[in-house]
Design a protein that fits this description.
Radius of gyration: 14 Å
Structural class: alpha+beta
Distance between the termini: 21 Å
Keywords: DNA-binding, Transcription, Transcription regulation
Mean pLDDT: 92
Domain HTH arsR-type: 1-85
Low-confidence stretches: none
Shape: elongated
GO molecular function: DNA binding; DNA-binding transcription factor activity
Protein name: Transcriptional repressor SdpR
CATH architecture: Orthogonal Bundle
InterPro entries: ArsR-like_HTH, HTH_ArsR_DNA-bd_dom, HTH_MetalResp_TranReg, SdpR-like_repress, WH-like_DNA-bd_sf, WH_DNA-bd_sf
Number of helices: 5
Order of helices and strands: HHEHHEEH
Length: 85
Amino acid sequence: MGKVFKALSDKTRREILKLLNDKDMNAGEIAKHFDMSKPSISKHLDILREAELISSEKRGQFMIYSINTTVIQEVLGGFLDLFKK
C-alpha cells in the first residue's frame, strides 16, 4: 500500500491517472498534456506502474498505458477499513 500512496502523493501522477481514466494512451499522448520532458513523464509512468496503478501493453511500436481500477478500489477499501469501528 505504501507504493500506491507514494505514487498518489504527486500531482502530476494524479493528473496522469485522470487522463488514463478517460482513455488508454501512449507516453507521447500523455506528455502533450504536461510542460515537462518525455523522460520525466516516463519516470512518473514507471512509478505508477511499480505501484500497479497502471498497466502497459506493447501495441505495434507504441507502449499503451491504461489505468488499473482494481488496485485503486482495493487500496481505497483498505484505507477505509482503517477507520471502521
